[in-house]
Amino acid sequence: MNTHLLDELARAMMDVPAPLAELLANLETERSRLIELLSTLGPDEATRRPTPDDWSPAQLVDHLLLAEGFTNRLTETMAARALASSEATGFPSDLTAFEPLPPPDGMEAPPPIWPQKELAPAELIEALREMSEWTKKSFKAMATLDPRKYRMAHPIFGEIDLGQWWLIHPLHYEMHLAQSQEALRHRD
Fold first, then answer.
1. Count of C-beta atoms within a 10 Å radius of residue 106
2. 46: burial class by Cβ within 10 Å (0-12, 13-18, 19+)?
3. Which of 1, 4, 63, 88 is the right S-S partner for 32, CB 3.0 to 4.6 Å?
4. What is the pTM of this model?
5. DSSP string of 113-163?
6. What integer pLDDT is reported at residue 4 of this predicted model?
7. 77 neighbors 141 (Cβ within 8 angstroms)
8. What pLDDT, in 10s, does the model give residues 141-151?
């Protein structure tokens, strides 16, 4: 991660409680690794599918962006609900770590977050940077409430709280980064 990104991340993390800062740092580390990989790809490599049934690196990134965008919208909705009901009283001091995720019920991505487009690497990098900014705003909003109180069914993990929704994303990035790297090992 370059110095500018580290400084920017440190500023963003100062505005959120420690459990959120740690989670954001983990997510940004994985995002940075993905950006680094994308910066080495040409357009053909980014859209090459290892097999007809596999997603290309560009499709994997689109999928990640769709999933994270969904969680950002969910966070905005829940923060607005907390504000409207006067429950936005701050992040609880007793919350030092989020509950671990329950075991997944399968690993199939739901259709709403299936890839919709294959952008060039430079466009994917820009989209990832824009998503990072949106996510930082969501974390600041989440710092105003108790994320344990806001629960919603996840298609793979069942009903989980808002913090757990965010726990998924660094793991999700790590998993699909590994898939992209494996696909690229088979370059022509």
1. 7
2. buried
3. 1
4. 0.90
5. GS------HHHHHHHHHHHHHHHHHHHHHHTTS-GGG-EEEETTTEEEEHH
6. 53
7. no
8. 999 999 999 99
